[in-house]
Amino acid sequence: MTATQTGSADARRDRAPRRRRRGALIDGVPRPGPVENVIKAIVLGVACLLVLLPFLGIISTSLATPAQVIQAGGFVLIPEGIDLTAYRSVFAGGAVTRALLVSVFVTGVGTLISLTLTAMLGWALSRRGSIGNRQLLVLVLVSLLFSPGIIPSYLVVQQFGLLDSLWALIIPTAVSAFNVIVVRAFFVGLPQEVMDSARIDGAGEWQTFRYMGLPLARPVLAVVGLFYGVGYWNAFFNALLYISDASKWPLQLVLRTYVVDGYQIGAQDLGTEAALPPQTSLQMAILVISIIPILIVYPFLQRHFAKGMLTGAVKG
C-alpha cells in the first residue's frame, strides 16, 4: 500500500467518527432527545392555552344566554347555546355604532395619509445629495429621540382649531419617525442600476418614485401600513384629550368608558328600547367588535411582515 493510499484510509477513519458525532448535532447544537421534545410540547401547549383562554372566554361570554351569564357570575368559558342579543343591542344604532363608524373613518383616512407622507418623506431622505437632505434627516432622528409633552401638543392642536374635530385624531400622529427610517432604509437598499435605467428612459424624480419605488416597496409599505392601521384603531388617548363631544368618540374610547371606567350601558346609549342583556355580555360584545377588524386584516399582510421588516432594517 502506498503512502497516498495509507493517508486516504487514515482520513476516512478520521472522518467516520465525525460523521457519527455530526449526526447527533443540529448546526453544532446537540439534538434534543424525546424527553426534551415532550417537555417543550407541554410548555408550548400551556402557553397557547394561557393566550387563547381569555379570548375564548370573551367570545363565549358575548354569545352566551343572559341566564347563563347571570348564573356564572359574569364570565362564561363554554356557552350552552348561541345568543346574539348582545350584538343586536350593540348594533341597534346608538353610541357604539357611531363610535365604530368614527374608528373606521379615522383608521382608513389616517392610514392612507400616513402611508403617503411616510413613503414620500422616506424617498426624499434616501436621495443623497438633494437639498436639505441631511438637515431633514437630523430633524427626523431628533423627533425619534425626543417627543413633545402633553401640554405643548394640546396647545398646538388648540391653536390650529382642531379641538372636537376628527382631524385631531389623525394629523398629530400622521407621521412616525420610526416608520420613516424603515422606509428610507428600504429605498436606500434599492439597486442604483434600477434608478439609472428609469432616468435613462426619461423618467423624472416623481415618475421614478411612482412607477419604480412604490411597486418595489410594496412589502415594507404593507408592514408600515399595518403599524399605522393598528395604531389608529387602538388609539384612545388623543380622543380623550381633544374630543369632548361624545358623538365623535372612537370605539376604543367608548370601550374604555364602558369596560375600564365601569360605566353602565343603558338603552339610551344603544339606541334601543328593548330589554338589554347583562352588562358583561354587552362589554364582551363591544370588545369582540374592536378586535375583529385587526384579526381580519392581519392575515392578508402577514406574508409581507417578515420580508418588509428585514428589507427595511438591514441597511440604513
From TrEMBL:
PROSITE patterns linked to this entry: ABC_TM1
Keyword terms, alphabetized: Cell membrane, Membrane, Transmembrane, Transmembrane helix, Transport
Chief subcellular location: membrane
Name the record gives this protein: L-arabinose transport system permease protein AraQ
InterPro entries: MetI-like, MetI-like_sf
One GO cellular component, as annotated: plasma membrane
Segments for region (Disordered): 1-26
